[in-house]
Every structure is written in structure tokens, then in C-alpha cells.
Amino acid sequence: MIPKYPYYSYEEKCKQVPITFPPQHQDMQPGIESIMNPVPISDNPDYNGSGKLAGKVAIITGGDSGIGRAVAIGFAKEGANLVIAYLYEREDAEATKKMVEQYGQQCLLIEGDLRQP
């Protein structure tokens, strides 16, 4: 089961109605996950890896945040060491690396735009 955010407050409209988190917008893309409030959920604490990727190395582009971060954590739980390529979000990439290392895997960060030759 994927964890869900709890409601952070309530408002009165003839009855108590939960208030969901507001949408977030960043003018620069890719966005910077570290400034989001609340920070997106990237790890499912209920999932335990089974070692299917033990001894493998995975290269993940965009693994510093969002879906890429979730994939990186999932691969680490399965036993893979990781190489994560990202554009300029160093703080987000370092946070992902720390999460990967919590699962006992190695993580190499490479900053750069892989679209450019």
C-alpha cells in the first residue's frame, strides 16, 4: 500500500470537510523537490526488496527527484548500486543518494545535461 498524505487541516462548510494539500507550481523545470511543501513521498515503507538486482548497477537519469527518485529507491531496495544523472538540483540529488545509502547500496551522482553531446 502506498502511503498517503494525511489532511493537514479542516474548514467549516456547514460541516467539517478535510482540506487537501494545495497544488504546487514552479516556473523552472525540472522543479526543485527540496523546496516543495510538503515534500513528495518517494519511498514506500511497506515494500521490502527481494534482492532481484543484487550485484547489478543501474543508471537512472533524473533520479534526483520525483518518479526518478522513487525508481532509485526501489532499485536500491532490490540490491542495485546506482548511478544517478541529474541537471542542477544538487540538494535533491544528495538527498536521493542518502536515501539509497540507507539501504546499503552505493550511489554515484553525475551532474550534467545528457541531451547535449
UniProtKB/TrEMBL annotation:
Q: Which family does it belong to?
A: Belongs to the short-chain dehydrogenases/reductases (SDR) family.
GO molecular function terms listed in the Swiss-Prot or TrEMBL record = oxidoreductase activity, acting on CH-OH group of donors
User: Has UniProt tagged this entry with the keyword Iron-sulfur?
Assistant: no
Q: What is this protein called?
A: Uncharacterized protein
Keyword Oxidoreductase belongs to the record = yes
Recite the UniProt keywords alphabetically.
Oxidoreductase
Q: Where are the transmembrane segments?
A: none
